[in-house]
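Quick one:
INPUT:
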C-alpha cells in the first residue's frame, strides 16, 4: 500500500484528485489532506506519507513555504500547478515531476509509474527548484541530471557539450568527466538553448562559449576548447556560420 497526502486549498481539486486516484491508482491510500501551508505542515509532522500531492499556490503561502518549514524531505512530491511558463521550466531544470491543473489522468498515471520505478532522495532537486523559482530574473545556473544510479546537480557553465546516445544523452564537462543521462538530447536542447547552447547536428548540442573554431573543410566541423571535434550537419551549416559571426 502506498500512503499519500493531498495539500491543496481548493476543496473541489482535492475531491477530483481523490476520485482520479481511486480509479487510476487503487493501490494508493489517502491518509490525510490539508487546505494550506499551516495545516499541511501540522499534518506532515504527525504522518509519514510515501507521496505528497502539493499545490504550488495557496491562500496562506506556497508549497515552497511548506518545504522550508519541513526542512528534510523523506517522501516523494508531485507538484500540482496552474500553467506558469517560468514555474514549468524550473520544474524541468530540477527534474521534478509536476501536474498541470486540471490534472490529466494519463499524466497522473505516468507520474505514479515513475514514482514506483524509482524513489530517489530528491532533497537536492527540491532545493534547486526552490532556488530557481525565487530567482525569477536570473538565468538558470544549475541543472539536475539523472544517471542510472544518482541525481547530479551540475553547474550549467561547466558543460562543454552534449551528445545523443539513442534515448540517452552523454554530457561532457570542463573537468574532463563524462556522464550518461536518461533523457533525450531534444529535452536538453529545449532547456539549454537560452543558455548559449546550440544544436549544430542531430546528435550534438554545444556550449558556444567553448567553441574554439569552425573548420570549413571535411564537410564542416567545430573544434571545442577541450580538444574534441563536433560535426556540423549540411542543413545546419549556414545557421552555424551566422551564429558564430554574431558571437
Amino acid at each position: 500500500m502506498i500512503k499519500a497526502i493531498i495539500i491543496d486549498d481548493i476543496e473541489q481539486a482535492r475531491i477530483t484528485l481523490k476520485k482520479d486516484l481511486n480509479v487510476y491508482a487503487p493501490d494508493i491510500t489517502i491518509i490525510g489532506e490539508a487546505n494550506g501551508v499551516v495545516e499541511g505542515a501540522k499534518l506532515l509532522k504527525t504522518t509519514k506519507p510515501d507521496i505528497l500531492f502539493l499545490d504550488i499556490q495557496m491562500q496562506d503561502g506556497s508549497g515552497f513555504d511548506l518545504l522550508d518549514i519541513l526542512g528534510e524531505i523523506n517522501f516523494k512530491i508531485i507538484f500540482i500547478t496552474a500553467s506558469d511558463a517560468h514555474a514549468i521550466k524550473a520544474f524541468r531544470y530540477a527534474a521534478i515531476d509536476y501536474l498541470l491543473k486540471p490534472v490529466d489522468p494519463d499524466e497522473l498515471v505516468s507520474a505514479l509509474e515513475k514514482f514506483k520505478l524509482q524513489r530517489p532522495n530528491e532533497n537536492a532537486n527540491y532545493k534547486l527548484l526552490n532556488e530557481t523559482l525565487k530567482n525569477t530574473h536570473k538565468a538558470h545556473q544549475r541543472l539536475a541530471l539523472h544517471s542510472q544510479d544518482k541525481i547530479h546537480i551540475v553547474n550549467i557553465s561547466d558543460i562543454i557539450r552534449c551528445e545523443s546516445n539513442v534515448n540517452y544523452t552523454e554530457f561532457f564537462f570542463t573537468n574532463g568527466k563524462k556522464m550518461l543521462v536518461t533523457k533525450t538530447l531534444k529535452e536538453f536542447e529545449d532547456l539549454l538553448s537560452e543558455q548559449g547552447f546550440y544544436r549544430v547536428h542531430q546528435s550534438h548540442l554545444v556550449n558556444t562559449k567553448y567553441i574554439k573554431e569552425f573548420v570549413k573543410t571535411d564537410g564542416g566541423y567545430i573544434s571545442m576548447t577541450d580538444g574534441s571535434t563536433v560535426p556540423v550537419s549540411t542543413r545546419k551549416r549556414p545557421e552555424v556560420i551566422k551564429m558564430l559571426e554574431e558571437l
